[in-house]
UniProtKB/TrEMBL annotation:
Class of this enzyme: transferase
Main location class: cytoplasm
SUPFAM superfamilies: PLP-dependent transferases
Localization in the cell: Cytoplasm
Organism the protein comes from: Candidatus Nealsonbacteria bacterium CG23_combo_of_CG06-09_8_20_14_all_40_13
Residues involved in (6S)-5,6,7,8-tetrahydrofolate binding: L118, G122, H123, L124, T350, P351, F352
The protein, known as: Serine hydroxymethyltransferase
Amino acid sequence: MSKLHKQDPKIYKIIELEKKRQKENLELIPSENYASSVVLEALGSVLNNKYSEGYSHKRYYGGNQFIDMVEDLAIERAKKLFKTDYHVNVQPYSGSPANLAVYAALLKVGDKALGMALDQGGHLTHGHQVNFSGKFYHFAHYGVDKKTEKLDYDKIAKIAKKEKPKLIVCGATCYSREISFSKFRKIADGIGAILMADISHIAGLIAAGVHPTPFGYADVVTTTTHKTLRGPRGAMIFCRQQYAKDIDRAVFPGGQGGPHDHQTAAIAICLGEALKSSFKKYAGQIVKNAQVLAMECQKQGLRVVSGGTDNHLLLLDLTPLKITGKEAEILLDQVGITVNKNMIPYDQGTPFNPSGVRLGTPAVTSRGMQEKEMIKIAQIIAAVLKNSHDKSTLKTAVNQVKLITKKFPVPGINS
Ligand code: DSN
């Protein structure tokens, strides 16, 4: 019996239930993944016990000689993985505080910025009105072209010229096409703006060379570490040296206190894992899987926004099926497929009741699933969404999901 089981059976049971859910469900939320058991081991280590405000070799507390080694290693590996000499800060607690720190460092309250609208695929922290970014800064927004459902760089350049933002944010949480950082650079140069790339979703793909890199184009790059990078919850900020001092100060003491050293160690581990040649193969397979999933969904009569994908995710428009994203999320959950409802570009619905669902392949690819399984999964999804009132379709889908998940154990969950 584990110590946790003995001391706190209630929490133990909840963790076991979640473990079972993660093993038995097909996890298709594009921002989720399975961290390795080694990453989880570091998260549960004694590094949790230490305070180390400040930065490596310049701390406000004693006893940080080993913590410094952890942070140095994380920084060294981050530079190696992304082949960059940018300054790196590995302390942000997660993606939102990382983005906040960049804005706090480079903008004054009320300054103009430009980002992708949330309902077009951007992120809350890219200037949405309910978020600190939209409250403290004056964000203008760009979206995708109504017809192609892809970024229209000429249009973004026009918006940039009109709005004259001090900072342009590129990057998305629901955009399935390649992002041209070189085109964004040109747009930023055209108006003398700073360019920030939030690569949280595609960081693993960039590290593996299956998506173009923002390094050399963007002045600042932020990323979380738990999505395609497959590490712990956490984030990193990379920047050109001229912004380093201000960004470091904005992270600590500007926005945060002591860094989460157990998290930093786990980030170093995941970066080490991503440096292995097997990670390149993994990232390549994520994209292949997403493309096959998108193709088969289309073959089954589902509408994929922008007609396909270049990365790890795809967005289904459910309006032709006359069901909402919320209904689809619930239906698929009933058969053991976890997805999230999502706005589609120019959605007539609301964020809580949107017209789409977002599907992604990072987690199922971590389980070792390949094209064959993607075809099957697309067929199950299409059958469920097209026959939502047919009990026998749902029952068959439950069994089909069980068959697939049994064959592919979850890494990091051994029992
Ligand atoms: N929640 C993340 C996502 O699902 O994309 C973004 O913060």
